[in-house]
User: Which sequence fits this backbone?
């Protein structure tokens, strides 16, 4: 290594004053706004204005790898799926090579799209009595929640399909039928306590009602509030959070006001009902 390389490595990586911790939500928010302000340039100024002892290189890497919503696509169209099929035909489940072939997808995006959506071995449509019985026995064997093990007993179905089928139709603990006035009152109280969208948390206090049942009922009794919640969800999916795809330790619970992006979500006709 020559003197200049050593100096760069010291100044950008090893110097004890450099902040080496994980980027915080507040830092991410500042990087996004400052990158827009300086048109994705002037990283020395950006690092200085963030004020948390980050180097310009750190800020640039964080932006390009995680926060730049123009770097990685999230929605899949027909041409994307066709290209993914070509890549899998060439390389098999070697997702690093598949992602390189795609050009604008991460390895996790390619793997999840294939395994959850377009793998031709995935069965669609109505469940048979035999599949239902196999699913019930698999849940008894492996326990509720172990869907990756459960799906092995129901060939052609994904773990997501198994979960959805069991919790919405086969679980003997499910309570069907109309909600009572007392249940409606409790839903409103728990939403005030935990917030709109915390359906799993709310469901724990409303067993044997399911989170999806509670969400649907809230939409019926508090339509305006639910629509605002759905718009917020759509905003998040179409702005930054999609780029933390399958990296749960990196996800941030942003509010719309914290990020300087323009997005006017619209609900589909079914959600407006």
Assistant:
């Amino acid at each position: 290594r020559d003197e200049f390389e050593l100096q760069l490595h010291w100044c950008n990586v090893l110097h004890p004053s450099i902040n080496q911790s994980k980027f915080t939500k507040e830092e991410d928010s500042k990087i996004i706004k400052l990158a827009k302000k300086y048109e994705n340039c002037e990283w020395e100024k950006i690092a200085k204005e963030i004020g948390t002892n980050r180097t310009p290189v750190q800020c640039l890497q964080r932006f390009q790898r995680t926060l730049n919503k123009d770097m990685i696509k999230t929605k899949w169209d027909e041409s994307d799926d066709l290209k993914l099929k070509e890549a899998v035909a060439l390389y098999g489940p070697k997702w690093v090579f598949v992602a390189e072939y795609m050009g604008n997808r991460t390895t996790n995006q390619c793997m999840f799209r294939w395994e959850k959506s377009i793998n031709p071995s995935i069965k669609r449509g109505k469940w048979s009595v035999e599949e239902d019985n196999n699913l019930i026995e698999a849940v008894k064997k492996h326990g509720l929640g172990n869907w990756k093990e459960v799906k092995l007993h129901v060939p052609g179905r994904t773990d997501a399909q198994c979960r959805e089928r069991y919790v919405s139709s086969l679980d003997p603990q499910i309570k069907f039928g109309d909600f009572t006035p007392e249940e409606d009152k409790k839903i409103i109280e728990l939403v005030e306590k935990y917030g709109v969208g915390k359906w799993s948390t709310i469901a724990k206090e409303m067993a044997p009602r399911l989170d999806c049942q509670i969400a649907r009922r809230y939409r019926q009794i508090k339509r305006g509030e639910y629509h605002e919640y759905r718009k917020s969800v759509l905003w998040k999916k179409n702005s930054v959070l999609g780029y933390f795809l399958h990296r749960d330790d990196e996800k941030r619970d942003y509010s719309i006001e914290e990020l300087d992006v323009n997005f006017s979500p619209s609900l589909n006709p079914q959600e407006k009902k």
Q: What stands out?
A: The mean pLDDT is 83. The radius of gyration is 23 Å.
